[in-house]
Design brief:
The mean pLDDT is 93. It contains eleven helices and 14 strands. The chain folds into two domains: 191 residues, Response regulator (Rossmann fold), CATH 3.40.50.2300; 119 residues, 3-Layer(aba) Sandwich (Rossmann fold). The longest helix has 20 residues. α1 crosses α9, α1 packs across α10 and α5 packs parallel to α6. It is α/β, with parallel strands linked by helices and 340 residues long. 38% of the residues lie in helices and 18% in strands.
């Protein structure tokens, strides 16, 4: 596309319908709030309907019309978006696919903002390893979800646990949980939202339920509507509101939270924050580069170390993998989830 920076056109493929619609809708509102104070940029959003074949066409359509391209939500869809970007020799700004293979698959064509999946569980495992006393779980059961994301989160959790001396048992999707474990145990779920909810329900119905529970699904507020009494359950996610992060780029967190609540009536989850932050980073890099050519954008992103309301940003200049941002650990209490 054009080499200038005046009148930038930013295109985003988001799941406004289908399996990932709950997250795509949040990402869209996050982008719209960011866009409200960036009126020199034209924002164009297309619905990928949570389907790879629709996404493929949508990315190509946006690439023909836009200077900057934001990828979709989900590792599954972002994997395809990265491939299309490489074929078209374009750069995709990845806000929604944290799979390690996705972040590293197309150096020069994908700049990733989220923490890679293999590092997702780090804050929970470190918290678990630091637990003390007779009630501390002695073994962690890791239930892997279907697909690459769940497998990579589970593998990262297992590796971190072993490095910290936490004993683990790893189960595949749908495998039976321990009905009569000989010792106190903890549970970590790495599946889709629906998979994690179902696993936790099964675990709670056991004669000896887990003493500590953590799930990727518990990192979003909708979890509280899907599970009876989520009190005490830990969640891991890319971001959680109220962290007081100083934003060198893009909207400050207080204003973003107020605007989101004003539109949606609730506080945002991480899909909204990571989309807004990625748009801020992408447009900043275009201005740093003085254009929107792929090589110039990649060079600008590779040399950038900054912060947004989403947290730290720094990529590996050889791969585009995010190395600065860290996942957030939350715990559900009587007033809802809170960051730890």
């Amino acid at each position: 596309m054009g080499s200038g920076i005046g009148g930038l056109r930013l295109g985003a493929c988001l799941s406004l319908s289908g399996e990932y619609a709950r997250f795509g809708a949040q990402a869209r509102l996050g982008l719209e709030i960011w866009h409200s104070s960036n009126d020199t940029v034209k924002l164009i959003v297309e619905d990928d309907r949570s389907r790879t074949e629709v996404l493929d066409a949508a990315v190509r359509h946006l690439a023909a019309r836009c200077d900057l391209l934001l990828g979709p939500y989900s590792t599954h869809l972002t994997r395809r978006a990265g491939h299309v970007a490489a074929v078209l020799d374009r750069l995709i700004w990845n806000h929604g696919g944290s799979g390690d293979d996705v972040e590293a698959a197309h150096p020069g064509h994908v700049v990733s903002v989220p923490t890679p999946a293999s590092r997702y569980a780090e804050p929970f495992i470190r918290h678990l390893a630091g637990a003390a006393g007779p009630l501390a779980p002695s073994r962690l059961w890791i239930v892997q979800g279907r697909g690459g994301f769940g497998r990579q989160v589970a593998s990262g959790a297992e590796a971190t646990a072993h490095s910290l001396g936490v004993r683990t048992v790893r189960l595949g999707p749908g495998e039976p949980l321990p009905s009569a474990p000989p010792e106190a145990w903890a549970l970590f779920c790495t599946g889709s939202f629906e998979e994690d909810v179902e696993t936790i329900r099964r675990a709670r119905a056991l004669p000896t339920p887990p003493r500590t529970v953590c799930a990727v699904a518990a990192g979003v507020r909708e979890f509280g509507e899907a599970i009876d009494d989520p009190h005490g359950i830990y969640g891991v996610g890319q971001w959680f509101p109220g962290g007081g992060r100083e934003a060198e780029l893009g909207p400050a967190e207080p204003g973003f939270l107020a605007a989101y609540r004003g539109h949606a009536g609730v506080l945002p989850d991480y899909p909204a924050a990571q989309a807004a932050a990625t748009a801020a980073i992408a447009t900043h890099c275009a201005r740093l580069a003085g254009g929107t050519g792929r090589d110039a954008l990649w060079a600008a992103a590779s040399g950038l170390e900054t912060t947004t309301l989403f947290g730290d940003f720094k990529i590996d200049p050889g791969t585009g993998v995010q190395v600065g941002h860290r996942a957030t650990l939350t715990r559900w209490g009587t007033g809802g989830p809170a960051a730890i």
